[in-house]
Predict the structure of Chaperone protein HtpG.
Amino acid sequence: MEKGTISIHTENIFPIIKKFLYSDHEIFLRELISNATDATKKIESLAALGEYKGEIGDTKIKVTLNKEGKTITISDSGVGMTSEEVKKYINQIAFSGATDFIEKYKDKKEEVQQLIGKFGLGFYSAFMVAEKVQLVTKSWQEGAEAVMWTCDGSTEFEITPSVRPERGTDVILHIAQDSEEFLDKYRIQSILEKYCKFLPYEVEFEGKVINNTKPLWTKNPADLKDEDYLAFYKELYPISEDPLFWIHLNVDYPFNLTGILYFPKIKQDLAVQKNKIQLYQKQVFITDEVKEIVPEFLTLLHGVIDSPDIPLNVSRSFLQADSNVKKINSYITRKVADKLQELFKNDRTTYEAKWESLDVFVKFGMITDDKFYEKATQFLLLEDIEKKRYTFDEYKDLISTNQKDKNDNLVILYTTDVEKQDTFIQSAKKRSYNVLKLDGILDSHFINTIERKLEKTTLKRIDSETIDKLIDKGESLSSALTESEKEKIIEIFKTASGRSEVSVEALPTDEFPITITLPEFMRRMRDMAKMSGGMDYFVSLPEQFNVVINGNHALINKILGIENTDEQQKVAKQLYDLALLSQNMLNGSSLTAFINRSLEMMQ
């Protein structure tokens, strides 16, 4: 028998491990099975190098639950350890066997399979749930004897001779009273399915293999059919609709990365779309929080990313930023943009049929990622009120002749609600102006983004000004009213409306007598505030709008001819309320009064 003290440099290391090393105690099972996977990969590597001459045999990793005995055992047939290796790799916390192994064979790196463990702390995650841990192991080396390492969570250990017929390791956890939830077989089953579903070696629990050892992303894309990708999507997301299309990632320089990204049918709700990409490291599930790996807009995609080159901190679940992450980030962004460009060029009809789902995704990318914006200008589609779609260049060509102002600026007109803003849309149609439909959840931000990017171009909502001011071509109509008549009509409508922002303009006679316009800047700020939260100042501001009187309309001249002041105010109020109604701004008691007044005037 040999006794000794574990070599550590921090007092009370086990309470620290139990409370702080991992955010979720269920991680212990992932870490121990990852270690078993490493041990199995090592024996295969040694065999490939010709150092191990024996049979590889069964590489299955077994998880055994003994509820009555309150133990969980993880068994492998990997390299195992000698007594000296146990003292070296187990007793010295944070000394990684995997790191040492790679260093030893660094000159033959291409022949050595990459290993999962790099931190040497995964084994000690066992003490998050166990009051005592036993490790029974037998090395692959000829003549090696089995040994048992035992530790009760203190800094003391015990190594004794043991019996194990074959090479490999058993880790036996004696579950602590406060962790007996892990003695439930369904709990263990769910953890295994979460973290080990795609491990490269079979994992057996309760007599059944729980994992797919060769998931789709590890296969050659040339060998796969559409049905394979769709079936794998259902394996990942059983209750989701079929995806629109997918990208198979496979790169080995300047970093290693494989995976499959699917484009789902995206609804107009970003919150429910995110965090569906699963991050793996050598087929071990790490997290579905991948915003450090991919730009935020790509979190709308679904699928799998697997890379040994993604740097993780000691608990693996938290990513660390470094140059590889930036390279991976850029690579995935480029691949996604290239895929969209390819689909657009090869089959625009099919691409347009999928645009309803792609719209939010592409615009989110353009708003948040400048590099993606540059590429996306080639496959973004703008939709007008007639449901026709155009690229940026196509749309510029369409409106360049008719929709330029006196300063040669291109003016893009848009509506956020085709039905409610129909009055203003009809005015635009009279002048053969085209109107875009920008009514999506991101469009208030998207409008600001493209306006910053496009030269000599401005976007104006169709109801933010009278039509001749929206696209000011420097032309002016003569007014039918004298200056004194203008002043008089302004006073009449200030009284009728209770507002001070009243002006008279010389507009075409076929335009409405009164128009309510919403200033572009304030309206944009309010729309953005409602969408993104914050900016409460803009949300809380009272609705600001202007009252514009068409001085050339016959009804305005008629009001000036009414001698009875009450009757004059009645007609003015009626016209004002009609203008409010056209902007969906008349409600409550004001709407009731308008209806009653209308009935009275019709009698």
